[in-house]
Design goal:
Layout: H1 21-28, E1 32-36, E2 39-42, H2 44-63, E3 67-68, E4 74-76, H3 77-83, E5 94-97, E6 103-106, H4 111-119, E7 130-139, E8 154-164, H5 167-187, E9 193-196, E10 206-213, E11 219-223, E12 230-232, E13 252-266, H6 268-273, E14 276-278, E15 284-286, E16 288-295, H7 296-306, E17 308-309, E18 312-313, E19 324-328, H8 335-347, E20 352-355, H9 362-372, E21 376-380, E22 388-392, E23 398-401, H10 403-410
Parallel strand pairs: 3-7, 19-20, 19-21
Antiparallel strand pairs: 1-2, 4-6, 5-6, 7-8, 8-16, 9-10, 10-13, 11-12, 11-13, 13-16, 14-15, 17-18, 21-22, 22-23
């Protein structure tokens, strides 16, 4: 991709209300654009990152037996009344009326919809277990949408729902999904703490939040640096300073960003909505359910919160919008070499952003490369001759290497 043709260039102007570093950097680097409070457009760079994150999530959900579906965003009032959440859901639902004067909600979550779907198609324990997931837009009627992608009114979420014949099967699957979540965050390049949590508006007998340490976070946890204990302060059974049971030192308190939440729902929704199955003896029993969510845009922002420096974003390899950022310093006679390098890289299957702007200075190009944050920067200039300059975004070290060596390192 030639940067001169890319829609959404860098800008020096930061959002006036930017409190989180991710909000500032994602706007300035050309990843997102704000339409209104809590409502954002993803520009080409931002959409590539979002797609890379969703691909990781999709792979790990498929690996635990998830089947992908797509459920409606418009949800009728009657199914929310079955669970008693039409009036009580927090934040309040976005409610609208159709031309027949019937009330509908823009879905902030899909427990009612998925339970309604399953109760019409599952009748026996032989049909269980089953796990269904989707990656789609959700809507939350937030009073105060701030922090860029960290607190929004429209967002993309992966939500997985599992259905089981008994509590043990639910518990076993819940643990499998918990491990899958840890794999997702590791692949996305962020360290998380699986923290004991409240079920909130969703409910559940056992719930965990996945938290990234960040000063801009709205949550707080008590945690052990050794990773064997973490809990939201709202439910923590212990206080900061208590010695870790496994000898890792005193427990700490820190602000965090929640990037995922999993719930063992039990029969909360199946009982209210009559989602029943026959057991081996022919008796009708409510289905055991689990719910597992990841806010994809919020995870994108949390990665930036954890991976940045004073120059800009530092994307982990698996989520970066491109494999390499090729910077052409417009010295006389260097155009053929820059074009040759670009063509050889792309022919080798390497996804490259080529800064080919003729009206931008060397300093501006290098500054923009740091701001955008692609893991590897390659420079072609008069000084590099028939070689290229290699620099990792998270290092100050540079080296001159052959193009074939660069291809070898990038593939």
């Amino acid at each position: 991709m030639r940067y001169s043709q890319l829609f959404g260039k860098t800008t020096k102007i930061a959002p006036k209300d930017a409190e989180a570093i991710s909000h500032k950097l994602l706007v300035q680097a050309g990843y997102i654009d704000q339409l209104s409070a809590g409502i954002y457009s993803f520009l080409p760079l931002g959409l590539k990152v979002l797609q890379n994150i969703t691909n990781i999530i999709r792979e790990e959900m498929n690996a635990v037996g998830g089947q992908e579906v797509s459920l409606p965003s418009l949800q009728p009032k009657n199914i929310w009344e079955e669970t008693g959440r039409w009036e009580t859901f927090d934040p309040p639902l976005f409610i609208l009326k159709d031309r027949h004067d019937k009330e509908l909600a823009l879905g902030p979550t899909h427990e009612e919809v998925i339970t309604d779907l399953v109760r019409t198609r599952i009748s026996s324990y032989k049909d269980l277990p089953i796990a269904l997931y989707q990656i789609q837009n959700k809507f939350r009627n937030e009073m105060r949408a701030t922090g860029g992608l960290l607190r929004v009114r429209e967002f993309i979420m992966k939500d997985l729902y599992s259905f089981h014949s008994d509590e043990k099967d639910l518990s076993d699957y819940f643990d499998r999904v918990k491990e899958a979540y840890l794999k997702i965050y590791k692949r996305c390049g962020v360290e998380v703490y699986a923290s004991l949590a409240s079920g909130g508006a969703i409910g559940g007998t056992k719930t965990f939040e996945f938290q990234v340490l960040a000063e801009s976070g709205e949550d707080e946890i008590i945690y052990c640096e050794g990773g064997d204990f973490a809990a939201n302060i709202e439910v923590s059974p212990v206080k900061e300073g208590k010695e870790c049971d496994l000898g890792h030192g005193p427990l700490k308190r820190a602000k965090t960003i929640e990037v995922g939440h999993i719930f063992a729902l039990g029969t909360k929704y199946s009982e209210n909505m009559g989602a029943m199955v026959s057991d081996k003896q022919g008796n009708k029993k409510p289905i055991q359910m689990g719910c597992y969510g990841i806010g994809v845009g919020r995870l994108m922002a949390a990665i930036v919160e954890a991976k940045n420096d004073k120059k800009g974003i530092i994307w982990p390899e698996e989520v970066a919008p491109f494999d390499a950022h090729l910077v052409h310093i417009e010295d006389p006679g260097t155009e053929p070499q820059a074009k040759k390098v670009y063509e050889k890289l792309t022919a080798a299957g390497i996804d490259v952003l080529w800064d080919d702007r003729e009206d931008a200075s060397a300093g501006q190009k290098l500054t923009d490369a740091d701001l955008i944050g692609i893991p590897v920067r390659l420079v072609v200039s008069e000084k590099t001759g028939d070689k290229i300059e290699w620099k990792n975004r998270d290092s100050e070290k540079t080296e001159l290497i052959d193009i074939d060596d660069a291809i070898g390192k990038l593939t």
